[in-house]
Amino acid sequence: MGYTIKNFNKEYPDDDACLREIFQQRYGNLQVCPRCNRNTKFHKVSNRKCYSCQYCGYQIHPLADTIFNKSSTPLKLWFLAIFLMSYSKNKLSAKELERHLGVTYKTAWRIIKEIGKLMSSTYTKTDDRK
User: Fold this and answer.
1) What is the pLDDT of residues 30-87, one digit of tens each?
2) Strand partners, 52
3) Contact predicate 52/42, CB 8 Å
4) How many CB atoms lie within 10 A of CB 81?
5) 53: enclosing H helix or E strand
6) DSSP labels, 57-123
7) d(CA 109, CA 32)
8) Are 16 and 63 in contact (CB under 8 A)?
9) What is the rounded distance in angstroms from the CA atom of residue 8 to the CA atom of residue 51?
10) I want to staple 97 with a disulfide (CB 3.0 to 4.6 A). Which of 8, 36, 108, 128 is the partner?
11) Count of CB atoms within 10 A of residue 65's CB?
12) CB distance 108 to 82 below 8 Å
């Protein structure tokens, strides 16, 4: 049995879990602060989507230069869209994603467009079979 929606919800119960995953993927086990060069731990800043050095307060923004940057859509919905698009046998439409996520059509379309740029050309090209 493969990765299911139950597994997904357990691994990513909220936006903080998604942000931790992005931080981990981009920075790994970052132990030295780029500013103060001390061995440190980075802690999530409350009510913000960034992490801060425990000594000098240097902030790292894991969403910068990603498809999630400046998006008001919750990270969990972005992650769910990635899950749905990667497990869909057929091309997922913006209308279908709108219904699954409970977002506007415009938001669903943007999510598909941005994720599609990162995935195969299935979501970005028009149908070539004529």
Assistant:
1) 999 999 999 999 999 999 999 999 999 999 999 999 999 999 999 999 999 999 998 8
2) 43, 59
3) yes
4) 22
5) strand 51-53
6) --EE-TTTTSTTTT--S-HHHHHHHHHHHHH-SSPPPHHHHHHHHT--HHHHHHHHHHHHHHS-GGG
7) 39
8) no
9) 24
10) 108
11) 9
12) no
Type of residue numbered 59: Q
Distances (CA, A) of 28 to 7, 25, 42, 125: 23, 6, 11, 33
Tokens read off for 15: 């936006």
Instruction: Count Cα neighbours of 46 within 13 Å in the Cβ-side half-sphere.
Output: 0
Report the pLDDT value the prediction gives residue 118, as an integer from 0 to 100: 87
Give every CB contact of residue 31 below 8 A, 6+ residues apart in sequence: 39, 40, 41
Reported pTM? 0.86
